Amino acid sequence: MARMKFYCDPERCIECNACVTACKNENEVPWGVNRRRVVTINDGDDGERSLSVACMHCSDAPCATVCPVDCFYTTQDGVVLHDKDICIGCGYCFYACPFGAPQFPEDGAFATRGKMDKCTFCAGGPEADNSSDEHRKYGSNRLAEGKLPLCAEMCSTKALLAGDSDTISEIYRKRIINRSASVMARGVSYRDASFRAPYNAAGKSSAKE
Amino acid sequence: MGSMISISIPPGSLGAKAAAWSLLLLWLMLLPGQGLAESKQVKGLPPPAVLNPAADLWRDIRQRDMATTGTTQVRGVDSGVLINANGDKWRKFRMDQLIPIGGYLLLGMGLFLILFYLIRGKVRIAGGASDRKLPRYTSYERLIHWFIASIFIFLALTGLIILFGRPLLIPIFGKELFSVIASASKEGHNLMGPLFLVALILVFIKFVRRNIYQKGDMSWLLRGGGIIGKKHVPSNFFNMGEKSMFWMLIIVGSVIVASGLVLIFPIFGQGREWMELAHVGHAIGAILMITVIMGHIYIGTIGMEGAIEGMSTGYCDLNWAKEHHDYWASQMEKRGEAISNEAVNRFSDPDTNRSLGRELREAGE
Amino acid sequence: MIGQFIDGPLWTFSLAVFVIGVVWRIVTILMAGNRPDLSTPRGSASSGAIRTIFSRSVYERTAATRGRLLQIAGYLFHIGLFALLFFAKPHVDFYAERITGFGWATMPHWAFILSAELAFLGLLLLWIHRLLSPVTRLLSDLDDHLGSILVFLVMLTGCLALAQSFEALRLIHLLLAELLLIYFPFSKLMHTFTFVMSRGYTGATMGRKGVNA
Question: Which parts of the sequence belong to the 4Fe-4S ferredoxin-type domain (chain A) (predicted)?
Answer without folding.
Answer: 4-34, 78-107
